[in-house]
Design goal:
Elements lengths: L15 E3 L4 E5 L12 E5 L4 E5 L6 H14 L2 E7 L4 H4 L2 H7 L4 E4 L15 H4 L4 E2 L5 E4 L2 E7 L8 E5 L4 E5 L13 H12 L6 E3 L8 H23 L9 H8 L8 H17 L3 E3 L6 E3 L6
Parallel strand pairs: 4-5, 5-6, 6-7, 11-12
Antiparallel strand pairs: 1-2, 2-3, 3-4, 8-9, 9-10, 10-11, 13-14
Helix pairs in contact: 5-6, 7-8
Pfam families: Lactamase_B, WHD_BLACT
Family: Belongs to the metallo-beta-lactamase superfamily. Glyoxalase II family.
Cofactor: Zn(2+)
Amino acid sequence: MSSSAVQPPITPLPEVTRLSPTVIRILGGNPGKFTLQGTNTYLVGTGPQRLLVDSGAGERSWISALQRTLTEEKAHISAAIITHWHHDHTGGIRHLLDWNSKIKVYKNQPTYLPGYHGSPVSLEQIGTPLLPIEDGQEFSVEGATLKAVHTPGHTVDHMVLHLAEEDALFTGDNVLGHGTAVYEDLGVYLNSLEQMRGLFKGKGYPGHGPVVEDGPGKIGEYIRHRQQREDQVIATLKRDSEDGWTPMELVKVIYQGVPETLHIPAAGGVTQILYKLRKEGKVTTADGGDRWRLTDRSAL
């Protein structure tokens, strides 16, 4: 899922695109402010059996496009691998299994499916228990071997998938084709980005947006961007303020020139930075409230 605080213009993408001899992208049919052109799902492999990465949001157009593509490829899905629990990646599981109940569906922490943006997902709705994914587990079909790596941050269950044949990485929502990503825990997320950067040298196949041609380079940009934001928060906190700063007050300084309609999601990101800095002992709050200050202004 994309952060709306920094959002470049969105270029339309075709519903179905062959990205390489091994990878076909099928859009989820759910374009929007946070989903960009829609959730990317991927058919992976070259033979009669294919792997599916993610299942979109449950739009009928997606399952129709998937069926057409498999017919054209003279192929079927042996396993579906879900990168994380968000509804726009799990919502199509039920349609997939209604169409072909023999498909095995894998997800890290398979029972972790909380409600999301008013669209709860339950095992009852999906219709079958999901199978677990272990860190380092491999999935293979003709022409493709995917290795799953646990990379929490965007969500606690988030997995990326390394495609050995291309030295490419399916990055889920940790890295996107446009803009920046949201996360549940900034410190954990940054650790995962560092881990991901060392996994591959080729393309990134993101959960939303176009292919990232230089995957490790894009991850480096993400890390630098987050460090710049953290530096801006610390620099602003160094300014004299007897009462400390609220996250929104920090946003109004750091995000000058950004439309005010985007200040609320930006405040969420600033709050995550403050939580990270508090864990590191660099900031504190007054009486457990929402006003923040440096623990030692002179030490930073």
